Amino acid sequence: MKCRFFLAILLTGAALVICASAFFENSYVPAAALTEDVTTPSGANTRVLQDRTGGDWNPNTCHLTPEAPKYNVRPPVTPVTDVSQCPASVSEGDPNQCGPHCIVDITGSPVGGHAPEEILTEALKRCNTTIRLGPNVSLDYSDKFKGLRPLEFGRCVTLTSVNDFNRPTSQARTPHSVGPLLHFGDPESESFLSVKCGSEDALPNDHVRISGFRIFGTTDDQQSGEEAVGILIHRCVDVEISNMEIHGFGGKGIVVENVPEDSSARINDFSQVRIHDNFIHHNQHPSSGGHAGGYGVETGHRGARAHIYRNVFDFNRHAIAATGDTGGYFAEENLILKGGGWHNILFSRYTHIFDAHGTDSPCYLCWFNPIAWKVQCACADHIGGQAGEEFRFYRNSFQYHSDNAIHIRGQPRDKAYFTENVFPHKHLDACCGPFAGLGLDVAIKFNSTWNNEIEGNITKTDTFGEYYSQCDFDGDGIDDLFLATGATWWYSSSGQFPWTFLNTSSTRKKDLRFGYFDDRFGHSHWTNRLGSRSRTFSLGDLILMT
Hints:
- The chain is an all-beta fold.
- It contains one helix and 45 strands.
């Protein structure tokens, strides 16, 4: 078995970066298969298999199975092509538990006279089901099958991909492969993928996983018409969206909400919706009536919350947005590239890339319009009042420099924390009101001095173009681009694929040295790519570089 891995060793005055990332040849490691036996919290004689990395193998929620040998890596499931064979109800006992999953494989070909678009739509509605998209699947809901939209998720459903149905070793979407595609088309429905928990009397469609493929809306240019949503999360909890590419939606790539008002606000903790390791880009809608859409992620009304981390954002008007009555969001270790912020009016406004609305919209000037025969006013848009409850901005790296990086338009009820973020702007913050920092290059703009805590942030640091290209991090034999932002490390496979998170580190490229480590000859070989020295050493040798 060959193993290449990434390692950083701090040395005197420099850090050594060993190139290549973790991948294993000739070993079958199914998704969520690193398991161990654990006892259920209830103390019953039932045992479960728990993924050590979390994911959807949480013993409190999914995949309960009878007593099993220690090295069984998954509950008994049956691969099927006819979704009628899938379990249609939760396991007996606790209704908050999921049952053993069946598997539905989508190859892209019709089965039993049913198009793959139809099979996927029906499979998603069945609880306790894992749907696996093949590596070359491309499903089109833009024309013939637009009536099937939105694609609604049932309880305990996972929609993912595999690189090989017979011998899956990874998802089909990897750092050097884009993965299968679902195409939405013109926005005649409110959303594409819908994770919705409706009636208080119905069993909620919680415990959903969406991972490992692409969804595309209408166009990567400015979208027109209705503002479509890529993924809607409506009052459901334990929802995870990861390793996705989401683009071309004029409204929001992802929206998390707790509406309507006559229903309970079920999303009340940041861990209940997790959005991570995605590429979210080109979600923009031109101004219409003074409003412009196009958000990467929005946490919406009635206290909705989300943990948004290690994503890459580009060309969204707001990468992350929030309504005034939101619960807030935790934005952690995201990479925000140069693009975005266009409003399509004479001058840009509200094109900051991380946003939190206020609950007020005060008017500063009013006049009578004799043509319209009514009074019209110039009003600020969601400025003042309360701006959500709590926000945490931690180790985010901004290359975006067309406007403020972050604008908190009201006063957070609890607090907004800004810690160890990296900005290209000259000045860190300005307060208060809509004209705060006017004419200045300011990273963070406030509407209130209250309930804000700022510590350890970095300004005047634009890492655009600061790439190093003589390292192969993903083991495909082609050198990748490497980016050290001052908060995190990233790489782009062969310089042609989206950035992939690599490590948390404040060390910049100028303080790094790069080398290779492999075992092709039964020992390790290191090459100093910044110099002329190279030597062979055993695994027990100490690597030193001066």
